[in-house]
Specification:
Layout: H1 9-15, H2 17-25, H3 28-57, E1 73-77, E2 101-103, E3 107-113, E4 119-127, E5 133-140, E6 145-149, E7 153-154, E8 159-166, E9 176-186, E10 193-202
Parallel strand pairs: 1-5, 3-10
Antiparallel strand pairs: 1-6, 2-4, 4-8, 5-7, 5-9, 6-8, 9-10
């Protein structure tokens, strides 16, 4: 007696256009969810990235009348600081009236420079807080760099000018890209040390 073969339903499923449609689009809802979540993540990344760039790119607004001239500060290499002139810390008792330091830029690239040309750049240091910002001391990371500030105390809403001077011929730097910094210590309780850095490729 011959065995009868049972019908191959799998072949019918493969040939049936309905099953082909389900096989292709059966997970489409899940795919749409995944694609939607990925799209939202990308849009959020772009949005917050633009916000960050806009915040970083904001320029300090001030008028010549806002510039403070008072007891000047001459910042030199940290090893050469005369600590006898260091200003004592004075943090405000009322934190709602604390000073807030803000600078025009925290990094600048001079690009390619000649070793025999002394470079200068002016930075703006502002007080956007509610009480006086005291610059206790400022120093640089190398003897090739100095900075002069127009005052050591900044009232609320005012600014001081800091003139940076970089001498690439101070020691042998030709053929290298160097990075130097200025560190500013203040009575801003949330940001007691402000760093400003620059770099230059010395020819």
């Amino acid at each position: 007696m011959m065995n009868r073969r049972s019908p191959d339903h799998s072949m019918e499923k493969r040939s049936n256009p309905i099953f082909r449609f389900m096989r292709i689009f059966g997970n489409k809802k899940r795919d749409y969810v995944i694609l939607g979540m990925a799209g939202i993540a990308v849009l959020a990344f772009i949005y917050f990235g633009i916000l960050g760039l806009n915040h970083a790119g904001q320029k300090l607004q001030y008028s010549p009348a806002d510039i403070v001239y008072g007891k000047k500060i001459h910042a030199v290499h940290g090893m050469d600081i005369d600590r006898s002139t260091q200003v004592l810390e004075t943090f405000p008792a009322n934190l709602s009236e604390e000073p807030k330091i803000r600078v025009s830029e925290t990094f600048f690239d001079f690009g390619e420079v000649n070793s025999h040309i002394v470079l200068r750049r002016i930075f703006i240091i502002a007080n956007t807080g509610q009480s006086a910002l005291i610059i206790q001391r400022a120093y640089t990371t190398c003897g090739c760099t100095v900075a002069d500030l127009t005052a050591s105390e900044i009232p609320p809403g005012k600014v001081v000018l800091m003139t940076l001077q970089f001498d690439p011929g101070f020691h042998e730097m030709r053929g290298t890209t160097v990075r130097r910094g200025i560190l500013i210590e203040t009575n801003d309780p949330n940001h007691p040390i402000q760093e400003i850095w620059f770099q230059a490729s010395v020819r």
